[in-house]
């Protein structure tokens, strides 16, 4: 098929413009984090600042205790949440995928009904704060809403049903393996693609979560990166006021607040930007199997 | 005679009962491991999803923390009366539906357009690059988007006020105080964030179209536009319809982050940017008005539930296995 060069030119042109529009905000973010504060105050956020400076990052480095703590919290809830979520989802999805599981229809319905009807914010909040008293705990950052949901379980179940041949399970059973052994030794290793995909979605979900922190956490010690960012967005002095175990010697006047905000945002998305190229394949796959089933 | 037959029936009945019981017991024993496996997940769903469902009774009570949830008085539909008497109920419903409705239409059109463009690109590497970049905004949190917005719309130093408007000779605009721009701002941000994700789905559909159709059309002398109109769009129509229907089913639920973070929770903007989700949030966390916010939440859940059922029903009529269930 001959390539129409005029067509290609226009197609690339439009796509380049779109890509540039998508990238522009990120570019502005990174550049303003490296801009001298006075430049921002005087001339505004710009792609071509008059003065460059590392002062925002230096400031963050000095504040590193609060930042490091927030990072630690975020990393921890992401790792714990992802692993726990994967485990629970797979454990629930596997029996649902087995044709011989008793009451399979009932359990499947119970799982997927949660996708249709939602109790709402108020009851959920009251359940976690009044009934389980999770306010200001780490659990509150891991458990509510993010650990797993019917959608993930559905995806995993479909994968188990279509990609794990029943004869393998049956012959293992004949050989005397227990269900748990079958799950651990046969099913899980065969399911790495779907586990990678769901794991990725869980990771991004936990890394980016700010909502749980917003409603369940008021202790600055328990803030994740996104929560820190959130507070700083509304309260520009927040980082200054809450020196979590850091040095308290701050001359209030010339603190680089604007560029510091930008630098913090960069810090908040840097890990995702870094791992993105490596995992893009899995992510795209996850999105496609999720929406265009079969 | 009668007595004998009755006894026989009784014994048979009992034997049946015992058989059923032992079958259940045998099931439990044999599938013990599988039942154990589903326990963690089910416990989580009970805590996270089913317990709150029972919490819908909160909307019908006058919650007094001293008495606890179960001990508080029932007040029937009073909360709903208060809610729907205010202008708020209308405003948030209108906003939710208008925003989500236009999001669905605009995002769909744009995503299909970008997908078609991506499909046209001959160099695989270039197409993958474009796709990566366009998907990137989807992967960052709304808080960071709030920051990006700030860098653009800050009154004194934002990019727009300082770099763009002077070029056009317009005075600086107080973005976070003027509500008339926000429908456009929020729509634009929503497109920026979600087009990449939607476009992947439509692209997957487009790739599935058999090349022979296009070849035949080229032989018949059809140009690109005609081919897109007569081949591409009709053949991905099932996907379009399903995605749209499912989105309509969720029309009562907004992206909370979008409406809370990007406007920076600014007061003057509320009539334009308030949606059901932000209303419920504010009612609960800021005002402490449990009654109204739980009524609004239940209102949202019920309407949402009905819409999802209807949308899913229509989808399953069209294409059995695309439906959720």
Features:
heterodimer, A: 294 residues, mainly alpha, MetI-like fold, 15 helices, B: 325 residues, 2 domains, 2 strands, 75% helix, flat
Quick recap of the structure?
The complex is a heterodimer of chains A (294) and B (325). Chain A is mainly alpha-helical and 294 residues long.
The ordered string of helix (H) and strand (E) elements of chain B is: HHEHEHHHHHHHHHHHH
The share of residues in extended strands of chain B comes to under 5%
How many helical elements of chain A? 15
Task: Supply the helix-strand structural class of chain A.
Answer: mainly alpha
Taking the sheet with the most strands of chain B, its summary is:
2 strands, antiparallel
Name the chain pair whose interface involves the most residues: A-B, 103 and 100 residues
Global outline of chain A = globular
Just give the CATH class of the largest domain in chain B: Mainly Alpha
**CATH level-3 fold name of the domain at 64-245 in chain A:** MetI-like fold
CATH superfamily of the domain at 64-245 in chain A: MetI-like
Distance, first to last CA of chain A: 30 Å
* CATH architecture identity of the largest domain in chain B: Orthogonal Bundle
> What is the CA-atom radius of gyration of chain B, in angstroms?
28 Å
Distance between the termini of chain B: 54 Å
Q: Please give the number of β-strands of chain A.
A: 0
Largest sheet of chain A: none
Identify the CATH class of the domain at 64-245 in chain A.
Mainly Alpha
CATH architecture of the domain at 64-245 in chain A: Orthogonal Bundle
- Overall mean pLDDT of chain A: 84
């Amino acid at each position: 098929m001959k390539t129409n060069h005029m067509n290609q030119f226009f197609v690339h042109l439009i796509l380049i413009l779109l890509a540039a529009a998508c990238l522009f905000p990120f570019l502005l973010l990174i550049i303003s984090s490296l801009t001298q504060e006075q430049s921002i105050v005087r001339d505004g956020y710009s792609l071509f600042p008059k003065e460059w400076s590392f002062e925002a990052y230096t400031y963050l480095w000095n504040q590193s205790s609060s930042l490091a703590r927030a990072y630690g919290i975020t990393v921890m809830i992401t790792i714990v949440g992802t692993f726990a979520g994967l485990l629970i989802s797979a454990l629930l999805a596997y029996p649902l995928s087995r044709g011989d599981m008793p009451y399979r229809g009932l359990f499947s319905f119970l799982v997927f009904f949660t996708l249709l009807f939602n109790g709402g914010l108020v009851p959920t909040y009251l359940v976690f704060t009044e009934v389980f008293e999770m306010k200001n705990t780490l659990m509150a950052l891991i458990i509510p809403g993010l650990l797993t949901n019917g959608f993930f379980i559905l995806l995993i179940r479909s994968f188990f049903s279509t990609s794990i041949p029943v004869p393998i399970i049956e012959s293992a059973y004949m050989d005397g393996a227990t269900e748990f052994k079958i799950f651990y030794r046969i099913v899980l290793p065969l399911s790495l693609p779907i586990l990678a995909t769901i794991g990725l979605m869980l990771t991004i979900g936990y890394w980016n979560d700010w909502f749980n922190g917003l409603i369940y956490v008021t202790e600055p010690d328990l803030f994740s990166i996104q929560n820190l960012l959130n507070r700083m967005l509304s309260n520009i002095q927040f980082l200054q006021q809450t020196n979590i175990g850091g040095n308290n010697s701050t001359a209030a006047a010339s603190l680089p607040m604007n560029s510091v905000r930008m630098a913090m945002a960069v810090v908040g998305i840097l890990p995702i930007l870094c791992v993105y190229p490596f995992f893009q394949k899995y992510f795209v796959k996850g999105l496609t199997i999720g929406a265009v089933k079969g | 005679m009668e007595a004998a037959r009755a006894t026989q029936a009784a014994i048979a009945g009992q034997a049946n009962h015992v058989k059923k019981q032992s079958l259940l017991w045998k099931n439990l024993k044999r599938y013990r491991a599988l039942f154990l496996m589903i326990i963690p997940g089910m416990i989580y769903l009970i805590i996270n999803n089913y317990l709150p469902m029972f919490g819908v009774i909160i909307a019908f009570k006058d919650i007094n923390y001293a008495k606890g949830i179960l001990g508080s008085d029932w007040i029937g539909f009073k909360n709903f009366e208060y809610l729907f008497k205010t202008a708020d109920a209308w405003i948030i419903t209108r906003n939710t539906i208008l925003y989500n409705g236009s999001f669905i239409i605009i995002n769909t059109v744009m995503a299909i357009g970008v997908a078609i463009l991506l499909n046209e690109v001959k160099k695989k590497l270039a197409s993958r690059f474009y796709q990566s970049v366009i998907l990137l905004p989807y992967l960052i949190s709304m808080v960071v988007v709030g920051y990006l917005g700030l860098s653009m719309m800050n009154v004194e130093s934002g990019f727009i006020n300082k770099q763009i408007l002077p070029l056009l000779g317009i005075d600086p605009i107080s973005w976070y105080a003027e509500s008339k721009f926000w429908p456009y701002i929020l729509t634009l941000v929503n497109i920026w964030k979600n087009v990449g994700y939607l476009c992947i789905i439509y692209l997957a559909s487009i790739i599935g179209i058999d090349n022979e159709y296009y070849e035949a059309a080229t032989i018949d002398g059809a140009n690109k536009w005609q081919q897109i109109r007569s081949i591409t769009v009709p053949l991905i129509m099932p996907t379009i319809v399903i995605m749209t229907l499912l989105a309509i089913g969720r029309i009562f639920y907004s992206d909370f982050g979008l409406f809370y973070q990007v406007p920076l929770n600014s007061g003057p903007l509320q009539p334009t940017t308030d949606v059901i989700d932000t209303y419920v949030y504010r009612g609960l966390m800021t005002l402490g008005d449990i009654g109204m916010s739980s009524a609004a939440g239940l209102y949202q859940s019920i309407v949402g539930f009905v819409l999802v059922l209807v949308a899913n029903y229509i989808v399953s009529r069209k294409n059995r296995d695309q439906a959720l269930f």
